[in-house]
Amino acid sequence: MTTRGLDEFAGWVEGLMRQRGYDIDSPRGGGKSRIADEAGVHRAAVTRLLQRQSMPDLETMRRIAPLLGVSVRDMLIRSGRVTPEELPMAADLLPPSDWQPSLEDFARWLGVPDERMGVFVKVVNQFLEPDDEAEGAVEGVETRRTARD
Predict the structure, then answer these.
(1) To the nearest 10°, the Cα dihedral for 56, 57, 58, 59?
(2) Where is the HTH cro/C1-type domain (predicted)?
(3) What is the pLDDT of residues 22-53, one digit of tens each?
């Protein structure tokens, strides 16, 4: 990593921190400590990056990226550790943006066996489709049942 690369990366991260409301400019602003605490990393790692002393390690990038609203992939590419070609997007593996998963899809993701699929779908549908009795009830309040029910 060149000094220029570190400077560009640190400048990019600084901009993201400011956009997210971290006060990293004033000595007592608390922004460096706050982001370190929220990310679960050492404050020194944040300080070294902002002072252009060293590039954060992979774990620090992994923890800071979500706080800054970027992917770890973007951080790795911007840092110069990998190229976009070395870490391609898996766009062809992603479903279309208008795709809505079915209950069967959820069942598969949860590991529901095929022979139990019908039961799973039936039970979940009971929670998703309001029944006639619940429509008259106040939202958020359960209807009390008596022994005669």
Answers:
(1) -100
(2) 36-75
(3) 999 888 888 899 999 999 999 999 999 999 99
